[in-house]
Amino acid sequence: MKTGQRVLCIDYGDVRSGIAVSDALGVLAVGLGTVRPKGMRELTEIIKAKADEYNVGLIVVGNPVNMNGTAGPRSERARAFAEKLEAALSVEVVLFDERCTTLAAHRILNETDTRGKKRKDVVDTLSAQIILQNYMDSHKK
C-alpha cells in the first residue's frame, strides 16, 4: 500500500454489509454506512466505487471465524467474497478475524441507547469500523 492510500473494510453479510474506511494516515476508522446489495456482484460494484472514491490501497474483509478459531460456513462465504473482490479490483484484499466485533458494536449501541430501525442500520457499519480499527491497531509500526 502506498503512502496516502486508505484502507477500506467490509463487514460482509448475506443481507447487509457494513463499510468503513481509514483516514489518509491509517490511524482512525470511520464508518461509511450499511448497504443491502442483491448478491456478491452488486456488492463488488459498490466496493469498487468506494475504493475509487477514497483512493484505497488495501481492502480488509471481516472473517467471522468460530470462537475456537475454525472456519465455518460464514467464514467460507467471507473468503469467497474476498477472492471475488480481489479478482475484480486491482487492490489487495485481506481477511481479518472479526470475532466479537458485532458483540462490541451491540454493547456500544446499548450504551448510547440506540434502538429500533436505527440500530439495525448502524450495527453493521459500526462492526466494520471496529474491524478496521482493530486491523490498523494490530499493524502499527
List the helices and strands and how they pair.
Blueprint: E1 6-11, E2 17-22, E3 29-35, H1 40-53, E4 56-63, H2 73-88, E5 92-97, H3 101-111, H4 116-138
Parallel strand pairs: 1-4, 4-5
Antiparallel strand pairs: 1-2, 2-3
Q: Please, could you describe this protein's structure?
A:
This protein is of the alpha/beta class. Helix content is 45%, strand content 23%. It has four helices and five strands; from the N terminus they run βββαβαβαα. The chain has helices at residues 40-53, 73-88, 101-111, 116-138; strands at residues 6-11, 17-22, 29-35, 56-63, 92-97. The chain has a five-stranded mixed β-sheet, sandwiched between helices. A hairpin with a 5-residue loop joins β1 (6-11) and β2. α1 packs across α2 and α3 (101-111) crosses α4. The radius of gyration is 14 Å and the shape is globular.
Amino-to-carboxy terminus distance = 14 Å
Radius of gyration: 14 Å
The tally of strands reads 5
In the predicted model, the low-confidence regions spanning at least 5 consecutive residues are none
Content of β-strand: 15-25%
Helix content: 40-55%
Overall 3D form:
globular
Average residue-wise pLDDT = 87
Element pattern in H and E:
EEEHEHEHH
Q: Helix count?
A: 4
Largest sheet: number of strands, sense, barrel closure = 5 strands, mixed
Strand order of the largest sheet: 3-2-1-4-5
Class from helix and strand fractions: alpha/beta
